[in-house]
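[Automated response] Your request has been received and processed.

Submitted sequence:
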Amino acid sequence: MSVDVNDPAVSAAARSGDALGADAFKGVFRRHPAGVAVITTVVDGKPVGFTATSVISVSADPPLLAFSVDSASSAWRALASAETLVVNFLTAAQVELSARFATSGIDRFATTDWFELPTGEPVLVGSAAWVRGEVLQRTPVGRSFLVSVLALESDVATDDASPLVYHDRSYHGIGDHSVL
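Generated structure:
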């Protein structure tokens, strides 16, 4: 059933037809929960990583995923040349790890437990799962890049771990307590 735009249940923003500003747009996505991952790779022989809440499944056949990264971030400088990477899907117990990999100007790997795959990419110990992939495409979108990745291998390290979710500027865990 269609509702009249003048109905009090319709928001003032919907009635005004004004363009959506950056702050309002960010506010929408603060209310949209997202899984938390850390993207890791190697640049010039050194491990590099950053926290991402933009990871999406694109296709199962072929297995493709994507994520976005701000072109002004230090993470983008690393990803601009990376051929392969690992997406580490975090558990609720890894809040500190997520915060560390979201902090600029520190050695994010200094106090992190990780191991190197035979192909050279770092994997974070304790993640719920990880996917190693080949970067297929870097598409400029606004001031960010959408990075498309072909999944090459994966491992589900922890079957029963509660996933880490970011919602409204805070971390949450999903589990039996949150099932509706």
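Summary generated for your ticket: The mean pLDDT is 89. The two ends are 27 Å apart (CA to CA).
If you did not submit this request, please reply to this message.
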